[in-house]
């Protein structure tokens, strides 16, 4: 582990291609940069968000903006979001 690094789990809400809300007991400062792993039920490997920034932080949650995601991980994220999107009737 490198200096200034730690690992913490949280619950993801409001997932989109640009970011998400994370319910967590930690309260990082706005502007903090982090690496994130999204563990998707039924998938073996997590989706790696190489760089995300904290846009807001409250007492029990934070808003993250995704800044850098490698192409294979972006494609997986897009697929997951598409599967979560409500189906509309034509």
Radius of gyration: 14 Å
CATH topology: Thrombin, subunit H
The biggest beta sheet reads: 5 strands, antiparallel
Gross morphology:
globular
The count of domains is 1
**Poorly predicted spans:** none
Assembly classification: single chain
Description:
The longest helix has 14 residues, at 71-84. The chain starts with 10 loop residues before the first strand and ends in a 6-residue tail after the last helix. It is globular and about 35 Å long. Helices cover 16% and strands 37% of the residues. A 5-stranded antiparallel β-sheet has the order 1-2-5-4-3. It has 90 residues and is an alpha+beta fold. It has 1 helix and 5 strands, in the order E-E-E-E-E-H. The chain has one domain: Thrombin, subunit H (Beta Barrel), CATH 2.40.10.220. A hairpin with an 8-residue loop joins strand 3 (33-38) and strand 4 (47-57).
Topology:
Layout: E1 11-13, E2 19-23, E3 33-38, E4 47-57, E5 61-68, H1 71-84
Antiparallel strand pairs: 1-2, 2-5, 3-4, 4-5
Short description:
By secondary structure, the protein is an alpha+beta fold. Helices cover about 15% and strands about 35% of the residues. Strands 1-2-5-4-3 form a 5-stranded antiparallel beta sheet.
Highlighted features:
single chain, 90 residues, alpha+beta, Thrombin, subunit H, 5-stranded antiparallel β-sheet, 1 helix, 5 strands
């Amino acid at each position: 582990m490198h200096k200034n690094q730690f690992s913490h789990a949280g619950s993801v809400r409001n997932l989109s291609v640009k970011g998400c809300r994370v319910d967590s007991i930690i309260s990082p400062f706005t502007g903090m940069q982090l690496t994130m792993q999204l563990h998707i039920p039924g998938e073996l490997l997590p989706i790696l968000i190489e760089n995300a920034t904290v846009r807001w932080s409250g007492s029990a949650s934070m808003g993250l903006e995704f800044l850098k995601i490698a192409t294979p991980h972006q494609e997986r994220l897009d697929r997951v979001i598409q599967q979560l999107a409500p189906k509309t009737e034509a």
